[in-house]
Amino acid sequence: MAEDDALVVIAPAGDLILDVRQAEGATRFSYRVHSKVIRDSSRYFENLLSDRFSEGEQLSAALEALKLAGHSDLADAPVDALPRIAIVDVGRTSASSIRNLVADFLRAIHGQDLSVAIPPVPNLANIAVVADRFDATDTLSRYVRRKKYGSLLDAKSAKGKISTGMTEERVRQKLLVGLLFDHAPWVTRYSKHLILRDSSQWQPGVEENHTRPLWWDLPNGVEDELIQRREYILEAINSLQSHFLKLYTSGERQCKLGYDTSIQCDSFQLGEMVRFFIRLGTLRLQGTIYDNTEPTYHTGDVERLLESLRQCSSYQVDRNHAHCGLRTRLLPLVDLIQNQLCLDTTSLDVGLCLECWNNHRDTYAWSAAKRPVLWAQPRSLTGSRMLQGHQRTPSSCLHRHVVVRDLFMATERDWTARDAY
């Protein structure tokens, strides 16, 4: 075992030494702290140092012994005489050494400045992990808001915009900080980024690894919620393709011009439509006599997928059918979906709304909602009729989230009202 490290003094008049290790047998780091401060700031320490546990009884007995020995001012008490409490495991962090990480966590709890004026995102994310481990996120959340770390870090990165070079790990670190330290803009922005861009964690064949830092397995059901939202969004986009294929194979005349060539127009459009979707990689022809294939999912960027659908050409069987075909009918529906995804990243719609997630989760979460049987009348998405059923929801923004959620979660979607051919 490596030699134990020197004492880190957080509180010069502290009445307790914390001996902290990341694992049994790992290097021990010791910190002098105020027991009352850590009890007031952390439910973990409040319980551990109460008279219900031996650690709390030992602390009370040791402090009483110090008073009897004449050390009424603990600042003058010998360090060796102070009570010591052993702590093992500070959470799933990425820190190579926990010495400075735990010191910064304890400094924040004591209301002191951290080791650096504006901690980098990885440092802040690691502190969030430790705060979560010791049930001190409320205290750290107030500290981070008071220090305005979120705003200061955004100011250093083009007003918070997500750069094209930002790694998924950095996105996840910011999302975890937002979730645990109650910084709503980061929760919305970076949850939406993962939903629309996909995650390396969600790829087929990737197994869960609970030894990786906590941001790779977002807590409190968030990871599963993001996966669920992405799958429903992809299902909704796929239903556009299914809608038009069903129309053109139904036998009902789609070309309304009344020409002798209208039947040929429909056949031509169906053929071009199939070719277009196969070329995009969004459709495959598969026999139903025997099919041993596994379900597959789009693993790319949702925004790029929508842009690919926009590349549909204006196919026409001859010059008399200039306005027939897929493009004039598909693009308004792509616009509708894109508007509801709100790709400007300032909306609270498909990204997590922290207020609704924390306060109205049972009503708000996609993973907890019952799927609507049918979604229709898209022209009313922003109108009063679509909102009437949700006017009594307890949040000023919850009704809007629920309306958009219904579009993506519906078991069936009737696109006909918007398919204004």
TrEMBL record:
Residues 14-102 form the BTB domain. It comes from the Eukaryota. This is BTB domain-containing protein. The lineage of its organism: Eukaryota, Fungi, Dikarya, Ascomycota, Pezizomycotina.
